[in-house]
Amino acid sequence: MATTATATQQFMTTEQLLKDWQGHRNLTRRVIEAFPEKELFEFSIGGMRPFSKMAVELIMIGGAALKGIVENQMEAYNEKAFNPTSKEEILKKWDEETEVINHYFGQISEERFQETFNLFGEYEFPVYENILYFVDNEIHHRAQGYVYLRALGIEPPFFWERF
How confident is the model at residue 8 (pLDDT cuts 50, 70, 90)? Predict the structure, then answer.
């Protein structure tokens, strides 16, 4: 009779999770770049926000949330702290926040991913679920951007080209 050993295997490393998230961020950045300046700030369908507002939401969540997780404190979400008036401003801030995300993500220990954290004082879930929410939220808003681009007659970037 053969015996089998069981081992706990990790599905994904934290480095792989960050790489996946940054791949999504790279693609969303290219969606922002694809918008003409005026339409980025003004175009809307069905009462949805212009894509610039969606991009600002994404900018204001990731870095601030990770900083709060690392420092074990969280302020309320404040989308109004950044009010860009140009695509260039959005892209610059996007790149700055990418570095903030890289900086703080690497400071979260493996154990902390399982800890419950009250994100923005509103969303009490394990850290890993909060991070997955950031990615899901970005995919959701990027899809809205794809609809906008297609409605404007602009071919969006291929969704599978994330790096």
Answer: low
